[in-house]
Each structure stands twice: as structure tokens, then as C-alpha cells.
């Protein structure tokens, strides 16, 4: 499975028949709502050409890093 982070402003270009997710309502968004990600297998959908692709291990590092803006830091 391949993961691609996209700006939410680019969601209108996503063809949900070419990615694992079925609709924008089922996407996970970063904390400020400016980014999300989609996943696919096989050939890269044309609307994702030129965008950085991540493996599962790489995307998990990003999603679990407080500084990346995907999760809130636990109170001390």
C-alpha cells in the first residue's frame, strides 16, 4: 500500500474509484484541516503524479510526530 499526503484544497481532483478510501468523509485530516492522505495499490493514479509517496512505516512516523501537526501533544 502506498500513502500520499495531499492538501485539502486538492480534494476535488481525487478520483475515489482509484484509491482505497471511498469518500472525503472517511479521510483522516491533520489538526488544522489543511492536509489529508489517500492510499492506493498498484499503478499511481494520474491525479497523484509527482506527489511524494510514502510506505506504511514512513507515513506512521509522520502521523505520530507531534511536530508534523497530525496529533496533539499529550499534556505534561
What does this structure look like?
With 76 residues, the chain is α+β, with helices and mostly antiparallel strands. The protein has one domain (2-68). It is 11% helix and 16% strand. A two-stranded antiparallel sheet has the order 1-2.
Salient structural properties:
76 residues; two-stranded antiparallel sheet; 1 helix; globular
SSE topology sketch:
Layout: E1 2-7, E2 35-40, H1 56-63
Antiparallel strand pairs: 1-2
Quick summary:
The chain is of the alpha+beta class and 76 residues long.
Contiguous uncertain segments of 5+ residues: none
Mean pLDDT: 94
Give the spatial strand order of the biggest sheet.
1-2
Structural class: alpha+beta
Q: Which H/E pattern describes the elements?
A: EEH
Number of strands: 2
Amino acid at each position: 500500500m502506498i500513502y500520499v499526503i495531499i492538501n485539502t484544497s486538492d480534494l476535488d481532483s481525487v478520483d475515489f474509484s482509484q484509491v482505497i478510501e471511498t469518500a472525503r468523509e472517511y479521510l483522516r485530516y491533520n489538526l488544522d484541516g489543511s492536509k489529508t492522505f489517500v492510499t492506493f495499490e498498484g499503478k499511481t493514479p494520474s491525479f497523484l503524479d509527482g506527489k511524494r509517496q510514502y510506505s506504511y512505516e514512513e507515513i506512521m512516523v509522520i502521523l505520530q510526530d507531534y511536530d508534523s501537526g497530525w496529533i496533539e501533544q499529550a499534556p505534561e
